[in-house]
Protein backbone atom coordinates (compact mmCIF):
# COMPACT_ATOMS: atom_id res chain seq x y z
CA UNK A 1 0.00 0.00 0.00
CA UNK A 2 1.40 3.37 -0.92
CA UNK A 3 2.36 5.85 1.77
CA UNK A 4 1.14 8.69 -0.45
CA UNK A 5 -2.58 8.83 -1.09
CA UNK A 6 -4.29 9.81 -4.30
CA UNK A 7 -5.70 12.84 -2.47
CA UNK A 8 -2.18 13.96 -1.53
CA UNK A 9 -1.01 13.55 -5.12
CA UNK A 10 -4.05 15.49 -6.33
CA UNK A 11 -3.27 18.24 -3.81
CA UNK A 12 0.36 18.41 -4.95
CA UNK A 13 -0.76 18.52 -8.59
CA UNK A 14 -3.14 21.37 -7.76
CA UNK A 15 -0.36 23.31 -6.00
CA UNK A 16 1.89 22.77 -9.03
CA UNK A 17 -1.01 23.68 -11.33
CA UNK A 18 -0.78 20.37 -13.15
CA UNK A 19 -3.79 18.73 -14.75
CA UNK A 20 -3.62 15.01 -14.02
CA UNK A 21 -6.01 12.19 -14.83
CA UNK A 22 -7.27 9.57 -12.37
CA UNK A 23 -4.90 7.00 -13.89
CA UNK A 24 -1.98 9.38 -13.49
CA UNK A 25 -2.82 9.88 -9.81
CA UNK A 26 -2.25 6.16 -9.21
CA UNK A 27 0.97 6.13 -11.23
CA UNK A 28 2.34 9.26 -9.56
CA UNK A 29 1.47 7.97 -6.08
CA UNK A 30 3.56 4.86 -6.72
CA UNK A 31 6.42 6.87 -8.21
CA UNK A 32 6.45 9.33 -5.32
CA UNK A 33 6.55 6.41 -2.88
CA UNK A 34 9.62 5.03 -4.65
CA UNK A 35 11.30 8.44 -4.54
CA UNK A 36 10.58 8.89 -0.84
CA UNK A 37 11.84 5.36 -0.09
CA UNK A 38 15.07 6.13 -1.97
CA UNK A 39 15.55 9.38 -0.05
CA UNK A 40 14.95 7.53 3.23
CA UNK A 41 17.65 4.99 2.32
CA UNK A 42 20.13 7.77 1.61
CA UNK A 43 19.41 9.32 5.00
CA UNK A 44 20.29 5.98 6.65
CA UNK A 45 23.90 6.15 5.48
CA UNK A 46 26.36 6.33 8.37
CA UNK A 47 27.78 9.84 8.28
CA UNK A 48 28.97 10.34 11.84
CA UNK A 49 32.64 10.37 10.75
CA UNK A 50 32.04 12.60 7.71
CA UNK A 51 32.37 16.34 8.34
CA UNK A 52 29.75 18.59 6.73
CA UNK A 53 31.03 20.09 3.48
CA UNK A 54 29.67 22.17 0.67
CA UNK A 55 31.63 20.20 -1.95
CA UNK A 56 32.94 16.65 -2.11
CA UNK A 57 36.37 17.78 -3.31
CA UNK A 58 38.32 20.94 -2.48
CA UNK A 59 37.79 23.82 -4.89
CA UNK A 60 40.60 25.68 -6.56
CA UNK A 61 40.17 28.96 -8.37
CA UNK A 62 40.98 28.23 -12.01
CA UNK A 63 40.50 31.76 -13.26
CA UNK A 64 43.41 33.92 -14.28
CA UNK A 65 44.26 37.12 -12.49
CA UNK A 66 42.73 40.29 -13.92
CA UNK A 67 45.25 42.17 -16.00
CA UNK A 68 44.92 45.51 -17.72
CA UNK A 69 45.65 44.97 -21.40
CA UNK A 70 45.33 47.16 -24.47
CA UNK A 71 41.87 47.12 -26.02
CA UNK A 72 39.60 49.11 -28.30
CA UNK A 73 38.92 52.73 -27.56
CA UNK A 74 35.31 53.77 -27.15
CA UNK A 75 35.31 55.22 -30.66
CA UNK A 76 36.77 52.04 -32.17
CA UNK A 77 34.19 49.86 -30.41
CA UNK A 78 31.32 52.06 -31.58
CA UNK A 79 32.66 52.37 -35.13
CA UNK A 80 31.02 49.12 -36.27
CA UNK A 81 27.75 49.68 -34.41
CA UNK A 82 24.60 50.22 -36.48
CA UNK A 83 23.62 53.02 -34.09
CA UNK A 84 25.35 54.87 -31.26
CA UNK A 85 24.19 57.63 -28.93
CA UNK A 86 26.09 59.54 -26.23
CA UNK A 87 29.06 57.20 -26.49
CA UNK A 88 26.97 54.02 -26.10
CA UNK A 89 25.42 51.40 -28.34
CA UNK A 90 21.85 52.32 -29.25
CA UNK A 91 19.47 49.38 -29.22
CA UNK A 92 15.70 49.10 -29.57
CA UNK A 93 13.77 49.64 -26.33
CA UNK A 94 12.39 46.40 -24.86
CA UNK A 95 11.33 47.33 -21.32
CA UNK A 96 7.92 48.73 -20.64
CA UNK A 97 6.41 47.37 -23.84
CA UNK A 98 3.04 45.64 -23.82
CA UNK A 99 3.10 41.99 -24.77
UniProtKB/TrEMBL annotation:
Entry-linked InterPro entries: Asp/Glu-ADT_sf_sub_c (IPR036113), GatC (IPR003837)
Protein family (similarity comment): Belongs to the GatC family.
Gene: gatC
EC number: 6.3.5.-
GO biological process terms on file: glutaminyl-tRNAGln biosynthesis via transamidation; regulation of translational fidelity; translation
GO MF entry, a single one: transferase activity
HAMAP family from the UniProt entry: GatC (MF_00122)
Domain of life: Bacteria
Subunit composition and interactions: Heterotrimer of A, B and C subunits.
Protein's name in the database: Aspartyl/glutamyl-tRNA(Asn/Gln) amidotransferase subunit C
Function: Allows the formation of correctly charged Asn-tRNA(Asn) or Gln-tRNA(Gln) through the transamidation of misacylated Asp-tRNA(Asn) or Glu-tRNA(Gln) in organisms which lack either or both of asparaginyl-tRNA or glutaminyl-tRNA synthetases. The reaction takes place in the presence of glutamine and ATP through an activated phospho-Asp-tRNA(Asn) or phospho-Glu-tRNA(Gln).
Top enzyme class: ligase
Chemical reaction(s) catalysed: L-glutamyl-tRNA(Gln) + L-glutamine + ATP + H2O = L-glutaminyl-tRNA(Gln) + L-glutamate + ADP + phosphate + H(+); L-aspartyl-tRNA(Asn) + L-glutamine + ATP + H2O = L-asparaginyl-tRNA(Asn) + L-glutamate + ADP + phosphate + 2 H(+)
Pfam families referenced in this protein's UniProt entry, alphabetically: GatC
Organism: Amycolatopsis panacis
SUPFAM superfamilies for this protein: Glu-tRNAGln amidotransferase C subunit (SSF141000)
Entry keywords, A to Z: ATP-binding, Ligase, Nucleotide-binding, Protein biosynthesis, Transferase
Amino acid sequence: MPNISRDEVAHLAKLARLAVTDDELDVFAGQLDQILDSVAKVSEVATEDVPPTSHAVPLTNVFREDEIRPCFTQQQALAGAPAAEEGRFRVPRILGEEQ
